[in-house]
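Hi Y.,

Following your request, here is the sequence exactly as I used it, all 214 residues.
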Amino acid sequence: MTEKILALVAHFIILTISASGYFGILVLMAIESACIPLPSEITMTFSGFLVHTGRFHLIWVATAGALGCNVGSEVAYWIGAYGGRPFVERFGKYVLLSRHDLDRTDHFFARYGSITVFVARLLPVVRTFIALPAGVARMPKLRFHLYTFLGSWPWCFALAYAGMKLGQAWDTDPRFKQAFHRFHSAVAILVVIAIAWFLWSHWRQRVRDAAQAA
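Below is the corresponding structure, written out as tokens. Let me know if you'd prefer a different format.
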């Protein structure tokens, strides 16, 4: 079931980029940064594969992805800034953002300041939700977008570069195709385990938060 869902998501991403080019990359990365977990790992890796085919340029792919992160983050920042922490606590559960996540992020903001946004943009999962607590903390907008771009660009570049190299290996080394077909099931299993762990840990934290509130 999970593999089918991932396949549908991947198909949607591929169709969007194929039809819309750089703008499609920007839109997909904006969706992810607006707290909708659309995997940037698929978006940017496939974009990197299209760099290999000659359709895109690597630098512009990374830049379009990073700009998309800024666009989507503006939405999430606004929700955090004007809805406040109570709003995020109330509705954050729908994107699996727990009170524990907010507490931990607030702690990082208090201890490390704005650099938290830069570091978070280099981390899977966390990067999707970091704009909400940044908005709650009312981080200065210019600094927020600067760190968002600076942290997102290396992430987008690295994934696109990996996709480009995978495309080169796919065409030039038949052993790569054999290894891929041999181990793609193992990779799918690891993805499912990672998703299951994320869902379980956040659900457990939600239950704890509800018990404490009661």
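DSSP finds ten helices and no strands in the chain.

Thanks again,
Q.
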